[in-house]
Structure formats: C-alpha cells, structure tokens
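User: Can you predict the 3D structure for this chain?
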Amino acid sequence: MKQTRIIFFGTTEFASGILQTLIDEGYNVVAVVSQPDKPVGRKHTIQMTPTHALADQYQIPVIQPDLLKEHVDDVLRYEPELILTCAYGQFVPVRILEYPRFGCINVHPSLLPKYRGGAPIHHAVMGGETETGVSLIQMTKAMDAGDIYARVTTPLGKDETMAELNERLLVLSKQLVKENLEDYIAGKLVGEPQDDNKVILGLNITKEEEKVQFAVEDVQTLYNHIRGLIDWPMPYGVVDGKRMKFCKVRMRKEDPQVKPGEILGFKNHAMEVASIGGIIEVYELQPEGKSRMTADAYANGAGRNMIGKVFE
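Assistant: Here is the predicted structure, written as structure tokens:
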C-alpha cells in the first residue's frame, strides 16, 4: 500500500508536518503542489513555502501554480493514485479530484461540519469551543463538505491560544494520518456523511476581524477573540489614534463600572483594560511602531501616560 503514488497538496508549516509524516512513514510521494513562493521582508527576498523547502530536502518535484486550474496537466502527468491535501489554499479542479483511483482526501483541523474553510483553528478558539479535533475527509467540489473517514477529538483549554492549539492539532493530525491512511487505501474505512444542518464556517480571517471591539464585545467574547488571533495575525485595538497588538492576555469577570476599553492602570505585571462585564489583563503587547514588550516595560515607558485613555 505504501507504494501508492501520492501527490501531496499543501503550503503552510502545518501542512509540512503532514508531508514529513508521509515521508517518515515511507509513503511514495511523487510530487508536492504548493502555493507560489513569496517575497518577504524589506528586501523582498523570495522565501520558499514550508512544503516547498521540505520537498527540496527529499528531492521531491514541486509544482507551484498561481492558478491551479490552469496547470491541471502539470499535476496529472505524475499519474497520482491518491491525492492528500492539507492547508493548500486553492480549490482543486474536478479533473484532478476525479483522476486518482483511490480518490482525494483532506486533513482538516476541526470537527467537521464545524468550521469549514481556511481558518478552522482560529474560529474554534474565537467561537469559545471547549472541544475540537481533526477530521480526515473525502474531497468534493464543495468546500470541506466530503464524507468523514476518521476523526480525533481533544479538549480546548479555556486559556488556550490559536498558536498553542495549532501545535497540538498538528500532533493529532500526524497521528490521524499514521493510523488511518493505509486502511483508507485498503478500502477498510467507510465514510460518514456530514450533517449540512450543523455547518459552521471558519473562513480566512479578514482585516476587519483582526481589530477587537471593546465597546461591542463582552469580556468572554473579547477574550476568545484575542486568543483566537494569537500568534497570527495578531489582534489589535486602537487607542489614542494608534494600534496596539495584544500578545498575551488573561481575563477576569467583574463589573469595572467604567467605560469599556478604558485603560485602568498597571497591576501584577499586567495592563488592565475595562470591558463589558470584566477586565482584560494584558501581559505582553506591541504598541504601533515598537517591538513586542511586557506590560511592565510599557508601564516604565509611555504606558503610565495612557491610563484613562479608551480603546475604540
């Protein structure tokens, strides 16, 4: 079964972990399809995607089309018998979906049908979920809508951030592939249809969603929002006309009896900000134009002058 010709579709660091598992387990990965490499930094140096870099280490051919639908033949010339995808970033054309004799399957880091889309981990945290997991599904034309072949669940901690959960779900995803891929190829797994009445979308985070709204969100919703965007793309608020990113926070429930968003002061190594029904304790932050710093460091600089100012 491990000689099955597999093409892996994936782009991100998370996806590279799945690719590494396929390689370590001895599967026959004949090609990798990734999003194009992109320029980074002030010098716009071209940086390989994580999956491209990993594939290069093992001399696996890499295809990086801007538009996959225009390069279908480039993919199919590798004659895949199975396609496995994870965090690729483009829709896969029907011609590709219908080609492999063992079909196309996807590793998706949520308990589908919850959080279909490109940011399921962010949205599970932002949604205040207490449980999440990873699903192995059939790929279809519709986004993340295929039958579920296997899944693994895990509790989601009340203070866990997206970055922390991302690391744990990668471990579970690798485990899911190790334990189920051979059985899938052998035809031993039976797919379970998703309940379309229970669909929740987990689409890519928008620029608007990066900003937290102290005047609108209650303390628990605000806390979930902030946790769900740490460490990427990083949540921020606007105070005194400038952005401030929140890098490490906690919350406590009480009635601050002041305007939501008001900076109350500095206490126990945190900057305290009033919110609806509670306090957001900011332990690490990044003021606009500055480096990330502790609340203590901020208090010793410009922070004391911000007491009484209000986040929008």
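The two ends are 58 Å apart (CA to CA). The chain has a mean pLDDT of 97.
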